Amino acid sequence: MEIFNISHAKTHLSSLIARVEAGEEIIIGRADKPLAKMVPYKDDSKPGFLGAARGKIAVPPLEKLNEWDADVAEPLTIDLFQEAA
């Protein structure tokens, strides 16, 4: 792979960017040692939408959310307050 000198990259930045847009990866270096790589930008972020997590998470029924399991909750509550004190 060809390594472009920094001064060459500064002078020919537009043409190097055009090559990157075409899918090529460009290496920029100093004294033939690679310093940086120019690669095509890929936008991996996908816009969120309502229902995107459907089938990936489970939500308990509302009746279960309103139940208080004292056998489990009491020790957890005591531990939390003892750590905070």
Q: Any overview of this molecule?
A:
The mean pLDDT is 82. A hairpin with a 2-residue loop joins strand 2 and strand 3. A three-stranded mixed beta sheet has the order 1-2-3. Helices cover 40% and strands 16% of the residues. The chain is α+β, with helices and mostly antiparallel strands and 85 residues long.
Q: How would you write the strand order of the largest sheet?
A: 1-2-3
Poorly predicted parts: none
Strand percentage: 15-25%
Count of beta strands: 3
Shape: elongated
Distance between the termini: 61 Å
Q: Percentage of helical residues?
A: 40-55%
- How is the biggest beta sheet arranged? 3 strands, mixed
Q: Provide the structure class.
A: alpha+beta
User: Compute the gyration radius: what is it?
Assistant: 28 Å
Mean pLDDT: 82
Question: What is the tally of helical segments?
Answer: 4
SSE succession: EHHEEHH
Layout: helices, strands, pairs:
Blueprint: E1 3-5, H1 6-11, H2 13-21, E2 26-30, E3 33-38, H3 62-65, H4 70-84
Please outline what is shown here.
With 85 residues, the protein is α+β, with helices and mostly antiparallel strands. The chain has helices spanning 6-11, 13-21, 62-65, 70-84; strands spanning 3-5, 26-30, 33-38. The chain is built from four helices and three strands; from the N terminus they run E-H-H-E-E-H-H.
For the structure shown, list the relevant keywords.
3 strands, single chain, 85 residues, three-stranded mixed sheet, 16% strand, 4 helices, alpha+beta
